[in-house]
Every structure is written in C-alpha cells, then in structure tokens.
Design brief:
alpha+beta, three-stranded antiparallel sheet, two-stranded antiparallel ribbon
Length: 88
C-alpha cells in the first residue's frame, strides 16, 4: 500500500482485485447495489497481442487478453459488507 494512500485516503482497505473491464464492471455494480462507497485504482494496463501476425489478424484480435488490474478500496467499517456483496 502506498504511503500517500495510507496517510490521506479514508478508503484504504483493498477488498477486491479485478482483472479486465468486465470483471471491473461486475464488482463495481455489486458494490454500488449494496450502497457501499468505494474507490477503484487502476494498477496495470497491458494487452497480449502479437502485431507481427497479419494473415489471421481478425482472429488474433478476438483473443486479446485484457490484463488491466483494478483494486477496489473501501473504508474500514465497510470491509465486511463489501466482501459479502462481492461474494454473491
């Protein structure tokens, strides 16, 4: 955990890590539906894609792996509720 987050942010407890935008939207909607305030931090953006393959380019684009990482942070008093919301 970064020093700045520890010192200045109220929501400093990481309750979930999502990989890819689909997983991000699922987690965000579950937390919002439960009425839990959260902060999401984009940690890593990378895609696995070989640009040297042109003959089957249309098939390769479908197999791009989204490895974007999102960490969801909540306040200490919301940890249990957030874990319950994400579990269901």
């Amino acid at each position: 955990m970064g020093l700045i987050r520890w010192l200045f942010f109220k929501k400093k407890h990481c309750v979930y890590t999502a990989f890819g935008t689909e997983s991000y939207y699922q987690a965000a909607s579950r937390l919002s539906a439960a009425g839990i305030s959260y902060e999401a931090k984009l940690k890593l953006t990378a895609s696995i894609y070989d640009t040297s393959v042109h003959a089957i380019d249309q098939f390769v684009r479908k197999s791009i792996v989204d490895t974007t990482q999102y960490d969801f942070f909540v306040a200490k008093e919301d940890i249990y509720r957030a874990q319950q919301a994400l579990r269901h």
